[in-house]
């Protein structure tokens, strides 16, 4: 192989690798959030987590925003917390589905 052929081969291989990696990134960016929320839902269902709706106007005392967040941490699984509190983000135009812990 001549030097020109080697350079051409390296350029084409680099472009091909970039396109493959870009396609993998695109698939992860598209389906990643849906897979994350599905796994989160299945783990909460498996561990028996239930959600309780509390209005923000009630005296919550020492309830912090950390317990109301819909994020999955492995510490939540280890703590064995069976009931989580949901505070509606907006009582006028928000949607709250306690069965799945959706709060938008």
Keywords:
two-stranded parallel ribbon; 53% helix; 104 residues; mainly alpha; two-stranded antiparallel ribbon
Structure description:
The chain is mainly α and 104 residues long. The protein has three helices and four strands, in the order αβααβββ. It has helices at residues 3-47, 65-68, 74-79; strands spanning 50-53, 83-86, 96-97, 102-103. The strands form two sheets. Strands 1-2 form a two-stranded parallel sheet. It has a two-stranded antiparallel ribbon with strand order 3-4. Mean pLDDT is 80; it is low at 64-69.
How are the SSEs placed, and which strands pair?
Elements: H1 3-47, E1 50-53, H2 65-68, H3 74-79, E2 83-86, E3 96-97, E4 102-103
Parallel strand pairs: 1-2
Antiparallel strand pairs: 3-4
**Which strands sit side by side, in order, in the main sheet?**
1-2
State which percent range the strand residues make up.
Answer: 5-15%
Distinct helical segment count: 3
Task: Point out poorly predicted stretches.
Answer: 64-69
Q: Distance between the terminal alpha carbons, to the nearest Å?
A: 61 Å
> Would you report the number of β strands?
4
- Largest sheet data: 2 strands, parallel
- Average pLDDT works out at 80
Task: Indicate the structural class.
Answer: mainly alpha
Shape category: elongated
Q: Compute the gyration radius: what is it?
A: 23 Å
The topology string of helices and strands comes to HEHHEEE
Q: Considering DSSP H and I runs of 4 or more, what fraction of the residues is helical? A: 40-55%
